Amino acid sequence: MNNTFLILGIIVSAILILFGTVLIYYHSIIYVKSEGIIENAECSLDRNVKNFIYNCKIEFYHILNKKKYYNIKDVKTSIIPYRRYDKIDIYYNKNDPLNVITDDYMDNAYLYVPLVLGIILLLIVITLYFMLI
Question: Which neighbouring-strand residues pair with 99?
């Protein structure tokens, strides 16, 4: 019975780890880093945080093959709010240049969920197996 749970746990965690790795790899080859130029920025100080954090709604564009692609994002920044003509790092989808993410980690945090769950599950299964022996 213990061996069945061990094997099943290892298989499920291996699938999660593999899926998470493929998801991260796919994301890294489909999105290309570029530079966006802010056209308009509306920032307000976040009063719920002790540090200087600004919530900004930015309108920006990036140029690809001599064509401008416009986008609007809600982002956070610290110390200095975004201003017009500031440059920001963006990642655009090769297949859809309008699909843009900023370097804000929450835009792509979901990528790491299967990988982390797989590693945690593997550690739990191995620990429980050796505790029950």
Answer: none
Half-sphere exposure of 43 (CA within 13 A, CB side): 18
CB neighbours of residue 91 within 10 Å: 20
Domain that holds residue 98: 2-132
Task: For residue 5, give Cα distances in angstroms to 10, 13, 109.
Answer: 8, 12, 30
Distance CA(110)–CA(34), nearest Å, equals 22
Tell me how far apart the alpha carbons of residues 126 and 121 are, in angstroms, rounded to a whole number: 9
> Tens of pLDDT along 15-70?
999 999 998 888 888 888 889 999 999 988 888 877 788 888 999 999 998 999 99
First to last CA, the chain: 12
Q: What is the residue type of 96?
A: D
The CA radius of gyration of the chain, in Å to the nearest whole number, is: 21
How many domains, the chain?
1
> What's the CA gap between 111 and 35, in Å, rounded?
22
Beta bridge partners of 71: 60
